[in-house]
Design goal:
The complex is a heterodimer of chains A (239) and B (501). Chain A is α/β, with parallel strands linked by helices. Chain A is 46% helix and 23% strand. Chain B has helices at residues 2-9, 19-28, 30-49, 71-78, 88-93, 98-109, 130-133, 141-151, 176-220, 222-275, 283-308, 314-337, 347-425, 448-473, 480-486; strands spanning 11-12, 16-17, 53-63, 156-160, 166-173, 431-433, 441-444, 492-495. In chain B, the strands form 2 sheets. In chain B, strands 3, 4, 5, 6 and 7 form a 5-stranded antiparallel β-sheet that branches. A two-stranded antiparallel sheet of chain B has the order 1-2. In chain B, strand 1 (11-12) and strand 2 form a beta hairpin. The two termini of chain B are 43 Å apart. The mean pLDDT of chain B is 85. The chains are: A alpha/beta (239), B alpha+beta (501).
């Protein structure tokens, strides 16, 4: 892991500048305007992605930006959905996109995460630096555990709040790869600050495996924090 | 709520069941669709294999009365009795008739090879020998019959065939010899029992008729009737005798009267001839006069004789009329001759001759007159007696006429009794059993194909039932349709993206 020093949040300007540089570079190379992730073209069911992505993109255009993706236990499917949506958003528009997950080193995030460039970001008003990894100047990956470090053991610290706010404010779109329900329940105070920042929640349902009661549990849990369930995303892959 | 929605999703307005969904469910719960048939077929095969081997034998029998072939009914027709017809229900009910089965049990009990027979039920799982079965009875007849009575009805059946009046006795046991013996005994008993039944009916009729005859005899006082009847016959004979006597008297009186008239005329002639001086010229007229007189006398006698008979026939009446006409003619001729007696010559000599005769005639005349008087008195007395007898005869006849309806009824009853006794002595069975063959069909209670049909049917039913139950209680989400069923307010945004490797 190689750290580049001196990245500050507010990151937005910096990321934009970087994008512009990259855009110029892409133009020179004769590539498309968007820095479309190669993963977008790896998607075999574009039609499905278009339908799902368009739904989220419409929400984004309505002003929503913090999208939480949960599941009934299939973390890999969660990550696929996030990666697909992030690719779609990037394909549609030149946006700063952050993906926050507690398992970046697993499943389909793993490859991208490993190929990412790591930065230490200085948050204003915070003594500690926040580590993030940037994949080809398109997506920024945040390890949720790095953010959670700023939270106190029993109660939420101001520093923690600031970091969450800084991360959310500095991106156009954020995709939250939510932790398991048990994990969130075990540290309600810590997660509460995060969950309350979600604009919408979608649940990935594994066909033939997920149970209605599990979906109901997740739905009820988030509903307690005022987060409405946007809808379900069907995962037909056999595990 | 989701279960109600699920149940509703199984129904369809047009086809009642939502067949596409059911098809989907059958594929989804394929384990049920595969396991149930295997299990049901396995169970069916097990039950097929553990069935007892059955020995079935049967014989047909006919109700002869339905085809007018019953000898009993033919005789009943001949003697004017009603035919006795057996209803199909009665034949079929024989199997459940306690008395019939008791007779059968007694017959079976009397068989020498009773203990070698197999009385186990066709569906039994635990076979026991007859020795053990009847062990508690210790060869006591009543107990054995009672035990067999509970078993035998389950070993045979009587079924109606398609042809009216045709039945089939079917015996099914677990042993060949038992089947044959029971078939033989039941067939024999069917014939015997029918004879017994018919005889019983006729005997009851005989008994009832005899009772009626006895009662009727009391009602009409047979002794009195007999006396009256005898009296009537006696009176009839007496009347006949009296009538004969009267007829004889009447004839005697008529004959005597004829003689009396003759004598009277003779006497009158004698008296006249005495006074007539006969002239030769008038002799012929006188002779004619005498001849006419004699003819008139004869005619009167004949008429008198005929009129004497009170019961004249038409012919006799005609003869009387004719005779009276002749008499009138003769009397007119006599009138025309006038008084010729005085013109007769030689009358003196004639008178002398006649005088001697006249004395005898007068004597006979007197005797005959007395005799006629006596006979007439006797005749009148007899007539009175005849009248009395006739009155008594009429009274006896009236009394017998009053008794006539009862006696007619009694006659009919007696005739009926004779008919019934004749019928009773000629009764034969109208349930005629065919020749008992030697064929024994060996099979199991239900065939393999029957079990297979049952297995397939029940498999389909259980697959459907369990699939529906599984679906109703299944909490898993399989597709978008399930999402709609579980969460009415949620939508499926799309499918997860798939990345090529």
């Amino acid at each position: 892991m190689v750290f580049n020093q001196g990245l500050k949040l507010k990151l937005k300007e910096e990321l934009k500048n970087t994008s512009e540089i990259l855009i110029t570079a892409n133009d020179v190379d004769g590539h498309d305007y968007h820095k479309v992730v190669k993963y977008f073209y790896k998607i075999s069911n574009h039609h499905d992605l278009y339908k799902t992505g368009n739904s989220f993109y419409n929400d984004y255009r309505k002003g929503l930006k913090s999208f939480a993706i949960s599941s009934t236990g299939d973390k890999e499917a969660q990550q696929r959905v996030i990666l697909g949506l992030a690719s779609y958003f990037n394909h549609e528009e030149n946006l700063t996109i952050a993906i926050i997950s507690d398992s970046l080193e697993k499943n389909c995030f793993k490859e991208l995460y490993e190929q990412s460039e790591f930065f230490e970001a200085q948050i204003e008003g915070c003594g500690k630096k926040l580590i993030l990894s940037r994949y080809e100047n398109i997506f920024d990956f945040y390890n949720l555990s790095n953010i959670l470090k700023f939270a106190g053991r029993d109660k939420v610290t101001l520093e923690y709040e600031k970091i969450i706010s800084a991360v959310i404010d500095n991106y156009d779109v954020l995709f939250w790869d939510t932790s398991s329900l048990d994990a969130m329940r075990s540290a309600t105070n810590v997660y509460q600050a995060l969950i309350s920042r979600f604009d919408s929640l979608s649940i990935v349902v594994n066909a033939s495996e997920s149970r209605a009661c599990e979906v109901d549990k997740i739905r009820t849990f988030f509903l307690d924090y005022g987060i409405n369930l946007k809808g379900l995303i069907m995962d037909n892959r056999k595990r | 709520m989701s279960r109600v929605r699920k149940f509703n999703s199984l129904l369809n307005d047009v086809t009642i069941l939502n067949f596409p969904l059911i098809g989907k469910l059958l594929r989804r719960y394929y384990l049920i669709s595969m396991t149930i048939p295997v299990m049901v077929i396995g169970v069916s095969f097990y039950f097929y294999s553990v069935q007892n081997v059955l020995y079935e034998t049967n014989v047909g029998f006919s109700d002869a009365s339905t085809k007018n072939l019953s000898p009993t009914n033919t005789i009943a027709d001949l003697v004017g009795e009603n035919q006795i017809i057996i209803a199909e229900e009665d034949v079929l009910a024989m199997r459940n008739d306690w008395v019939f089965n008791q007779k059968l049990a007694k017959k079976i009990h009397q068989l020498p090879d009773l203990y070698s027979l197999d009385f186990n039920s066709v569906n039994t799982r635990n076979k026991i020998s007859t020795n053990i079965l009847l062990e508690k009875c210790q060869h006591e007849e009543e107990c054995t019959v009672k035990t067999l009575l509970g078993i035998l009805p389950g070993l045979y059946n009587i079924v109606a065939e398609a042809t009216p009046g045709r039945y089939r006795l079917v015996v099914v046991t677990l042993e060949e010899k038992t089947s044959k013996i029971i078939l033989r005994e039941v067939a024999k008993l069917i014939e015997e029992d029918r004879v017994y039944y018919l005889k019983n009916i006729v005997d009851k009729k005989i008994e009832a008729t005899e009772k009626l005859i006895k009662q009727q005899n009391v009602d009409i006082n047979a002794e009195n009737m007999m006396n009256l009847s005898n009296r009537q016959v006696n009176l009839k004979n007496q009347i006949e005798e009296v009538k004969n006597g009267m007829r004889n008297l009447s004839q005697s009186i008529a004959t005597n009267k004829l003689q009396f008239n003759t004598l009277e005329l003779e006497l009158a002639q004698f008296n006249k001839s005495r006074s007539i001086g006969a002239a030769d010229s008038k002799r012929i007229n006188y002779e004619k006069y005498v001849k006419l007189n004699q003819e008139v006398l004869d005619l009167r006698t004949n008429i008198s004789l005929l009129v004497q008979n009170t019961a004249m026939s038409e012919y006799e009446k005609k003869v009387v009329v004719e005779l009276e006409a002749r008499l009138q003619t003769k009397l007119v001729e006599l009138e025309k001759l006038g008084d010729v007696s005085r013109s007769v010559s030689g009358i003196d000599k004639f008178n002398e001759t006649q005088d001697s005769k006249s004395n005898y005639t007068q004597k006979d005349y007197n005797v005959l007159k007395e005799k006629i008087k006596k006979e007439q008195a006797e005749y009148d007395k007899t007539k009175e007696e005849l009248d009395k007898l006739q009155i008594e005869y009429a009274e006896v006849s009236r009394q017998l006429d009053d008794m006539k309806p009862n006696s007619g009824y009694l006659d009919l009853l007696e005739k009926k009794l004779i008919s019934l006794k004749l019928l009773s002595s000629t009764i034969t069975t109208d349930l005629v059993v065919d020749n008992i063959g030697n064929n024994v069909k060996i099979h199991k209670n239900a065939s393999l194909s029957r079990y297979l049909v049952f297995a397939i049917t029940s498999s389909v039913f259980f697959i459907f039932l369990l699939t529906v139950i599984r679906y109703l209680f299944d909490q898993k989400i399989y597709n978008e349709d399930d999402v709609k069923v579980f969460f009415e307010d949620l939508e499926v945004i799309g499918n997860t993206p798939e990345f090529e490797k």
